[in-house]
Amino acid sequence: MKLFDVYPLFNINIVKGEGCYVWDETGTKYLDLYGGHAVISIGHSHPHYVDMITKQVAQLGFYSNSVINKLQQEVATRLGVLSGYDDYSLFLINTGAEANENALKLASFHNGRTRIISFSKSFHGRTSLAVEATDNPKIIAPINNNAHTTYLPLNDIEVVKAELSMNDVCAVIIEGIQGVGGIKLPDNDFLKELREACTATNTVLILDEIQSGYGRSGKFFAHQYAGIKPDIITVAKGIGNGFPIAGVLISPIFKPVYGMLGTTFGGNHLACAAALAVIDVIEKDHLTENAAQVGQYLLQQLKSFPQIKDVRGRGLMIGLEFEEPVKEIRNKLLYEEKVFTGVSGTNVIRLLPPLCLSIEQADEFLQRFKKVLG
């Protein structure tokens, strides 16, 4: 059997990681400014993370959700305090797409509606409703194209209000910062008015913080810059530093009923150990504050590069837009300067490094980037 060929691959086999660096099988060292799509939050192979997972798997890796799991309870308690949402409830699953699926399902249970408002260039996952809420027709199969979703321009509140006034919208789902869409930021005032409009029309507001959450923006959640509280928040990626775990943070307005949601692997003992290790390190090493400080430094420095058309983002979630396609720039960074970065579309480079990135490592990147840009 061979692999189903759906990923265009760089001819590099990464075999080791430590902090903000990775190594390939030949021993070549790379600076990691992408963190595997914003997944690596506390750094590769953090010793505390390795220790917690090792001890847990030696004791118990998995048992079902039919018994008490005190590790789940501990994750919920500590995440509530760290995020500022201690009055919300937590449902644990495995992936970001699952988180958004369950969020949309909860919203529909709550108000009985079926229409979704999503935004231009949004990305919410690759399964069922999550992919239908994603503004990319290339990845929406006919079986998923069920006309549930209306896509609207980001930051145009009057257009949103007009749709919500029909009183048939189940949920508005919006990213704290658009990732795949090119590091596009919702305006603070837009989010405030969106919150008010959703409340007025009994529409559930879902904040997809899968890429922009867990300290990456310089606050725990990117929407907290606007001072709002959504009804549901979805998290994944950084929550487990590479171990598959995701969560749905659920407002007290929702009442749980046995059987309404469920999962086999979600919130298993090993996943919870990973999540607790991440919380430990974020707190101890002040990684949210570090993301704000180092991110601000990077943004300021990058804005002085005349070759870049636009620099945008918050914290360590940064987009660099060029007039021309960035494929050659990215390839030179990777193969000549040994730096991993991401892209969004044709003209945007995405920077999503581990949250432990230092000023010195930021300077290391800037020096290599200057060489590539000439």
UniProtKB/TrEMBL annotation:
What does the record give as cofactor?
A: pyridoxal 5'-phosphate
Record flagged with keyword Hydrolase: no
Annotated keywords:
Aminotransferase, Pyridoxal phosphate, Transferase
Instruction: Tell me yes or no: is Methyltransferase among this UniProt entry's keywords.
Output: no
GO molecular function annotations of the record: identical protein binding; pyridoxal phosphate binding; transaminase activity
InterPro entries in alphabetical order: Aminotrans_3 (IPR005814), Aminotrans_3_PPA_site (IPR049704), Class-III_PLP-dep_AT (IPR050103), PyrdxlP-dep_Trfase (IPR015424), PyrdxlP-dep_Trfase_major (IPR015421), PyrdxlP-dep_Trfase_small (IPR015422)
- Family, per entry: Belongs to the class-III pyridoxal-phosphate-dependent aminotransferase family.
List, alphabetically, the PANTHER family matched: ACETYLORNITHINE AMINOTRANSFERASE, MITOCHONDRIAL, AMINOTRANSFERASE CLASS III
Q: What is this protein called?
A: Acetylornithine aminotransferase
Give the species: Bacteroides graminisolvens DSM 19988 = JCM 15093
